[in-house]
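Morning!

This is the sequence you dropped in the shared folder:
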Amino acid sequence: NFIFDTGLTSSYSLFSKCFADKNGFSKFRTKNKNIYGVGIIHNIPIIDTLIRTEIFDCKKNLQFGIMDLGLSDELYDGIFNVHIFKENIIELDFSKKTLKFHDNFSNSSFTKIILVKRGNVRLIELTINLSKTEKVKGLFMLDTGYRGFIYLYANDTLFKNLNLKKESKRILGMKNFNTDIDTYSLKIPSVALDSLIIENPIINFGKVN
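The structure's back. Tokens below.
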């Protein structure tokens, strides 16, 4: 079981350490390289050999790194990066909890979302109403590997303006891969994605100076 993670923009996908050990990939010749998380750099072994991988009915030669995924190491076997289906249309059906890839797609019941590509990063435009007076509008990374809805960084000024220390809730056990990160949650008035308005969502954020 692999996660399709549009936030993993490296040229290689990842095997969990547990999966790599069980299937003999840990014995392959490797070279260490950096992989960049949100504000964190991980140095991990990258397998020199391309691995023949079958995803649905598609066969690809992929390069994999090996990473200790912490508590999630035995929950899933690895992570596919953003590039594996870069030529396809992605269908996300939240009601059925399915993800599919298409060469062509037309269905009037779905809403098309415009993606902005900057380098290897995919971005979407959001308007986030943090309070009655504070609004944030901009391009945000589309990260299907993130378990939450929206993740923001807030400095001391924003913390004070939004009274975040009083209204927010500290989340314990949040990690970037296997590294702890200081994370809080907050219920906000709304988020707008094109014509779609999501009311009273809970977003997460980290504090930066």
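Headline: The chain has three helices and 21 strands.

More detail when I'm at my desk.
O.
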